[in-house]
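#random but structural
TW: two for the price of one
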Amino acid sequence: MTADARAAARAPANTLYLVDASLYVFRAWHSMPDEFRDADGWPTNAVHGFARFLLELLDRARPQHIAVAFDEALDSCFRNTLYPAYKANREPAPEELRRQFGQCKALCEALGLSVLAHVEYEADDLIGSACHRARAHGFRSVIVSADKDLSQLLGEHDEQWDFARAQRWGADGVPVRHGVHAHQLADYLALTGDAVDNIPGVPGIGAKTAAALLAHFGSLDALLERIEEVPFLRLRGAASCAARLRAHREQALLCRQLATIACEVPLDAAHGHFARNRADAGRLGGLCDALRFGPMTRRRLHEAAGVEFVPA
């Protein structure tokens, strides 16, 4: 039995798996050959790769409660209202990929998995809201993603799972990975910025300085309230650091808003505790036909869904 299988076997029944789908769809899009085509001739490489990932996840974790979050707020996220340049450095997804996102969602639904998507909130916000709601009902969460931003959600009993690298960590593992505690990550990104999301941060403050400041002050709020103490810290360039913080105070607060995962997104009450539902055998078969899955993938999908597979 693998380490992942042992961890899944030890996981209590009140464990909610929250999957950052977009990460794995993009990985498949960039890594899978584009030789796969659906019945209409469109590429399906991302769907094929995502299906393989999903099958491995379901096999290893055997989740009773699971939700898969997709990004639909590509340029309509509430963060774009706060800061129009948010993620403006990213190229829009081509139509060939956007189409496959829809097919990946349909595949999850056919398998009986809860799908989360919203035009104003990102997948991170949906995962955060589901995590907080589950915690209030006695559930722990396992967040399936390598995205560092999601580590800010980790509570005492939660885990993050980098599926591709087979690495898991809880809140106590965040300082080793990122230099700050889980609850400090948004403050940390407010200072350092995040080039991936086009969050500027405070100019001139890098990772080591940000970590040192938060280790001393505990939070961005305390740091900004006590800026006068910064020049006296044993920190290289402490005086200029204090000047930058004074000059960019409002920008730091805005960046924290952008980096903080929203955890109060209204979620469909019908999802309940995201218990895995019965698969839709007819819809699953139709998708397998439309996506031109091979016999092995079809068999594995039907086995994962708990429905009979009848070879053509």
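TW: number two ↓
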Amino acid sequence: MSVQLHPDGDLLVEYSSGSLSPAMCVSISAHMHFCDSCRDENLRLTEIGGSLLSGVAPEALQTSALDEVFSKIDTEVDVAVTQQPVKSNEIQRGVELKSLPAMIQNLIPTSEPKWKFLSPSLRAAAIPVGENSCELALHKIKAGGSTPSHDHNGREVIVVLKGSFSDEDGIYAEGDFIVHHPGEVHRPQASQNQECICLSVLEAPLKLTGAFHRFLNPFFSFNPQ
């Protein structure tokens, strides 16, 4: 099944210009893993941006600019050597993580996502990308299971990475880029034959609906990182 839902033109322009938040950049990159048309459009926009920059008159730099750049590079190298981060290609990926796009795998510093219980059918694994305003996470719905019904206090972006799910508005398959706004209530449900894993970007906490769901609110904390 081909990808049916895509980022709008404004988002692609912001992505190609580098003006989006890290979490939103990851969501569009994940979508483009599945979508040839958006990859082609991003290439076109990048070429346009490059052409515009080539026509801009160069500005003179201060004589100390080069020394400042080299100083910053030296500092970052020292920090990197001290911390000795684990390289992504040194991690033995588990079966579940290997089923996801490579660019998502490279954001997970362990062999498998660290899933957190949210409800009997739903688990979440945070992805830290240096965010201070958005929460980026993987959400996994078990086969045939559903999430609690919820509204949104801010924009929510979902990219389907594995399987499919449905809600009151339609059926969504791998690669689909879904955007929800405040006032849009829905209850995603995974297909009966396969679990569904999605990448989610939240700009504000979810608002669970229904009397029973208030007991789940502590599990749905909002945690940009």
